[in-house]
Protein 1
Amino acid sequence: MDSDGGNNPQYEKPKQLLENKFSSYAFRNLNRVLDDLISDRGLFIATFPIGQDNCEIDHSLFNEEFKHFNVSEIHFYFMKQINEITWRQDDISIDKLKERQFKWKEGTHYLCIMEVTK
């Protein structure tokens, strides 16, 4: 759903604001899926990394661009990486993650699970 954050030499950074709402390809594409493919009251689950070398999706999450989705409910769950193979659910909020975005420790990453009901 998202780009590789510029690690690929053919990567093209998103225009200023995609569709005047979204700053990442991931949220723009997610919006298209929700609008075009999910039926009313349908459930869609997306997962994406937070705190990786690609900060575009972090930016979309922290700026609450999900509020532009035409859906009835959105729930977020965050998993914190404990070590190479262990993840644990963390009750951290989006605001707290946003505060930490410039303080990521090497090897400390989060996974966002976004549950969307149309």
Note: DSSP finds three helices and four strands in the chain.
Protein 2
Amino acid sequence: MKLRSALVILLFGTLALAQDIAHKDVVNEITGNLMCTCSCPHIIDQCGEECGMAPQLVHRISELVKSGEGPEDVYALFEEEYGLVVHAAPDTEGFSLLAWIFPFIGLLVGAIVVFTFARGLKSKTVEQDLNVSAPPIEDKYRRLLEKELK
């Protein structure tokens, strides 16, 4: 009988530990995707203890997850309360998609401008080199050169 009760306690303890680990994983995921609201440029899980706001936000998120809220619900709640700036990365839908696309477009346009500018410089120098003729060689040096080449 004692063995059964010990196994039951061990089983429930293991389940409680597994739930606690899963709970911490969800909280860590959420705090890694939301910005701190203290106006510092850090994500909640990277904001230092000197902030004062980050520990409160982590506690609030933890309580929301314990009450059964999922990550999407927590994101929606924080977005409703603090606006879109609370997200660490912009959404990948709608107008926010431009925030993902414009850096690549800017790099492409910059590469085209640099390539065009470099190509223009190269063609000008080649044309200048072709138009320049060598200075004439004096007769005495020409004779010496011909003598050496024979």
Note: The two ends are 116 Å apart (CA to CA).
Protein 3
Amino acid sequence: MVLCGLAGLVLYIWFDFRLMMPVFAVYSSFLETKIMSFVTTNLADELIMIILMTGFFFTAMSKEKVESADLDTLRAESFAKALWTNFVFFLLSVIFIYGVGFLSVVLLNLFTLFVFYLAFFRFSLLKR
């Protein structure tokens, strides 16, 4: 799923992939504000984000072929490191990045915790 999401992201960014569809929106604010109504929007970015988030979640939560108590400890340590790293990354972003760039960082922040966790966990496994 991560690879499919990344492929979709490449299509979206470099080839301007669009999937225009009417969707039900609880709140939508573009040219006009609409509440509890149907709006036509580019659904590609939402689908790509859902696929990426689900793929990273499944990857991060998947079990190894052989699980042990040591791996549970390794997972907990990797998660703590990822949480701290993600916090520092986001804190520095709040301090140094403004405007539309900050909105990009907020979107990126949806994935960085998973990425940091997977990086720390895999590196710890390799070290072990």
Note: The radius of gyration is 18 Å.
Protein 4
Amino acid sequence: MRLYLAERDGKLWSAGFSDGVHPRTEDEFEWRLGKETRWRRCGSEATDSETLQNAVKQVNEYFAGRRQAFDLPLALRGTTFQLRVWEELTAIPFGGKKTYGDIAEAVGLPTAFRAVGNANGRNNLPLFVPCHRVLAAGGKLGGYTGGLGLKSRLLAHEAAVSAAGARAMSFT
């Protein structure tokens, strides 16, 4: 899997995923950022900012099962409603799941579950603002900007790490 990260003014500005099932190019990532956006490319230690270095370190820890929450300065850009939705997403614990309806209710608009789905689709920092933890009614996967296969793998990763942690803490 390839992760694209962009930093601006010391904050994580955007993130994107690419894998063999749902490939994305760097050009597509840049297109989503917009031509007017100046950003710093992750990859060369000489040019990496402290923010990007910390983000890469924390993502590696996440996938190694040693990190369950990210501690990074984030640049969230959106409407007041989108920001409220994304704040609710960050409250979903590692390995947890909520439905679009749960999030709509939490932001005080119980019938706005479709708008919650649209806000998830506009999330410029997937993984860091964990929209993969939001499911459709009945536990269906719903959508994901990185593709449903990636959403499924992220949920399976968190479930496996959570189960391993529970077994490690067990006294039986």
Note: The mean pLDDT is 84.
